[in-house]
UniProtKB/TrEMBL annotation:
Keywords: Aminotransferase, Pyridoxal phosphate, Transferase. It holds the Pfam family Aminotran_1_2. Residues 27-370 form the Aminotransferase class I/classII large domain. The keyword Transferase applies. Its cofactor is pyridoxal 5'-phosphate. It comes from Clostridium chromiireducens. PROSITE patterns: AA_TRANSFER_CLASS_1. Gene3D superfamilies: Aspartate Aminotransferase, domain 1, Type I PLP-dependent aspartate aminotransferase-like (Major domain). This is Aminotransferase.
Length: 381
């Protein structure tokens, strides 16, 4: 077996989701899969793509019209790329994998946020990168000094950014973005910014990808799994200058050839006609976020208010057990599944991730169960 692959494990999010199936009557707030159907224009475009035999390989980089449409879409966020700087990938996952595989050599240092989406760490291990983690502030906002310190004391090649964040829901403020841009200008690094949830945001959007001066240092990864509620259809994309793209394309080509043709045509139509549906979903997530906040606060749990995505990451430190143990007990005794914070790295210890892409009824029942569990087990709240 490959020694590097042996070192990693299947994602803790998935492992916990599997455990739920074995606990009768349990409900799950574990998965990051929006509970909406895929927008109508997208499903119709996919049916049409099948009926018109658009079922063959597309070019490796993806359907031209879709790459052009993505450039137009990104301009709404003040992000500027040309069609040739876009590669359509098999979800954001393949985008991340192809990017990191293409730019890193064995022993290259990558600076990752902690806690963070587990793929960054695990892909880095598979490709023998050397992982350094930067801590976040207590409210999970960016600690620029901590990043500066790591960049100045370690020989970092790649800085990973992830906003809105899975698992914390944190986003980048204007001040943080501007300080980051200054830092990136000073340092000889490549920045990979994973913006899978960029359309699900409850405040102003800011990204380092908006700055033209540092464009040659930035690789932007995003996708449509979350914003179009189409996680199973597997369309993501990478946007970056040609010097990176020509290497990323080789990994992408030999790994997957191209993203699924039918789903590419669906996304094309979605970008042209379904952005209103995205706005409706965003509003629903914001309302649910407010509900989760009010229930968690009523339980006296410490929690930073998310500003994007559809996750909330309350502290469970006061219960004096590991997050894995707490979530196991909550599942077995409280019949509610949430993901232990350590599924997002060591710095996730003391937290649990709640996904609120579930219906109002399920959320209400889930928080009632959490309340009952805390009252019976810890006589608190
Ligand atoms: C931050 C982040 N990046 C990337 C991905 C991967 O997305 P996809 O399902 O499109 O592969 C996810 C999925 O949960 C995510 O949360």
């Amino acid at each position: 077996m490959n020694k590097q692959v042996e070192k990693i494990q299947i994602s803790g999010i998935r492992r916990f989701a599997e455990k739920v199936k074995k606990v009768e009557g349990a409900i799950s707030l574990t998965i990051g899969q929006p509970d909406f159907p895929v927008p109508k224009h997208i499903s119709e475009a996919m049916i049409n793509a099948i009926n018109t035999n658009k079922t063959v390989y597309t070019s490796n980089a993806g359907v031209d019209e879709l790459r052009e449409e993505i450039c137009r879409y990104l301009k709404n966020f003040d992000i500027d790329y040309d069609k040739d700087e876009i590669c359509i990938t098999v979800g954001g996952s393949e985008g991340l994998y192809s990017v990191l595989f293409a730019i890193m050599n064995q022993g290259d240092k990558i600076l990752l946020p902690g806690p963070a989406y587990p793929a960054y760490e695990n892909i880095s291990i598979m490709i023998k990168g050397d992982i350094i983690t930067y801590p976040l502030k207590d409210d999970f906002s960016l600690d620029i000094d901590a990043i500066r310190n790591k960049l100045e004391t370690e020989n970092i090649k790649v800085l990973m950014l992830s906003f809105p964040s899975n698992p914390t829901g944190a986003i980048l403020s204007k001040e943080e973005r501007d300080s980051l841009i200054e830092l990136i200008k000073e340092k000889d690094i490549i920045v990979v910014t994973d913006e899978m949830y960029s359309a699900i945001i409850f405040d102003e959007y800011y990204s380092v990808a908006q700055d033209k001066e540092i464009k040659d240092k930035v690789i932007y990864v995003s996708g449509f799994s979350k914003i179009f509620s189409m996680t199973g259809l597997r369309i993501g994309y990478v946007a970056c200058p040609e010097k990176y793209m020509k290497e990323i394309m080789k990994v992408h080509q030999y790994g997957v050839s191209c993203a699924p043709s039918i789903a590419q045509y669906g996304v094309l139509e979605g970008l042209q006609k379904s952005l209103d549906d995205v706005e409706e979903m965003r509003k629903t997530f914001e309302r649910r976020k407010d509900y989760c906040m009010s229930r968690l606060k009523a339980l006296n749990l410490e929690v930073a208010e998310p500003k994007g995505a559809f996750y909330i990451f309350p502290s469970i430190k006061k219960f004096n057990m590991s997050s894995e143990e707490f979530c196991e007990k909550l599942l077995n005794e409280g019949k509610l599944a949430c993901v232990p914070g350590t599924a997002f790295g060591e710095l996730g210890e003391g937290y649990m991730r709640i996904s609120y892409c579930y219906s109002d009824e399920i959320l209400k029942e889930a928080f009632d169960r959490l309340e009952n569990f805390l009252k019976t087990k810890f006589k608190c709240c």
